[in-house]
Predict the structure of GDP-mannose 4,6-dehydratase.
Amino acid sequence: MPHAIITGITGQDGAYLAELLLEKGYVVYGCFRRTSSANFWRIEELGLAGHERLHLVEHDVTDLSASIRLLQKTGATEVYNLAAQSFVGVSFEQPIATANITGLGALNLLEAIRIVNPAIRFYQASTSEMFGKVQATPQTETTPFYPRSPYGVAKLFGHWTTINYRESYGIFGCSGILFNHESPLRGKEFVTRKISDAVARIALGQLDCVHVGNLDAERDWGFAREYVAGMWQMLQVDEPDSYVLATGRTVSVRNFAQLAFAAAGINVAFQGHGEEEIAVDIRTGKTLLKVDPRFYRPAEVDHLIGDPALAREKLGWKPETSLETLCTMMVEADLRRNKTGYSF
Ligand code: GDP
């Protein structure tokens, strides 16, 4: 039975990856950071809580000695580093904590692998945020990076460190440059889930209006469950490499909101420009969405669209779920949750 470590088990990708690895017969050590209130709702929602091969372990990726002991204790042969301060907005407020967790965390794990057992395979969760102010469209593995946030800069450090340990020490380190990937398990601080949750509450009469930031931002949004399968596939091939996982389609926040309202049976029309832009219910004339500059970022990533050709060719990976299906899945989950009042 293979043993794997997932750092960041409490996050969206950690939960889906644990589900996949348990299905494949792995023993999974799911690491979480000590917080005053540990939050395992995703593990619970997927029905994984209490699984006999899932061990939840308190671990801090910024602690090298703890990382060394973790590898020794678990005998893991695969490490998936999904731990991060992963919210771009927060990274502007907490740049040093973000650099420590998101950047140095990857280095600590790679050092621990080098010390304990250099044959351990390592997955680094890199991100399209590293492309930031994009230098070419669509973005591929060879597109130059231009990060636009402390989060993007920290992730770039983890990305290059993974490549450097591959080239310097022959460590099987793979970097997955994943474009935005969403699901009903996305946190509400991200715009898709913030919108799907708000739309559900508006449809249920629990909320009047949602306030969002930049409606013009465009993202290449895929379904997270498919993206974690790509992570696993990267560690199963003969040679380590870096891969873009993306859908190849980009959609604005405005259009995502329109899809989300439609999924709840509400047709909206957008009116006005900039900070004055609103979305109005065509049937009732009510304003259901407003722009609030408080949600603007000091530096914005305007447009992301990835080309996953390499992953398709080398891993046989391809996205299957359309944004329309994904958005409907998210709104339906939030309608269900908000009806019962049990929503995280
Ligand atoms: P990111 O791509 O990792 O930053 O994912 P997010 O879901 O946090 O943001 C995606 C895009 O949506 C960014 O360009 C944000 O500026 C934009 N956006 C617009 N309104 C909001 C909002 O209310 N919350 C968040 N999180 N993002 C918003």
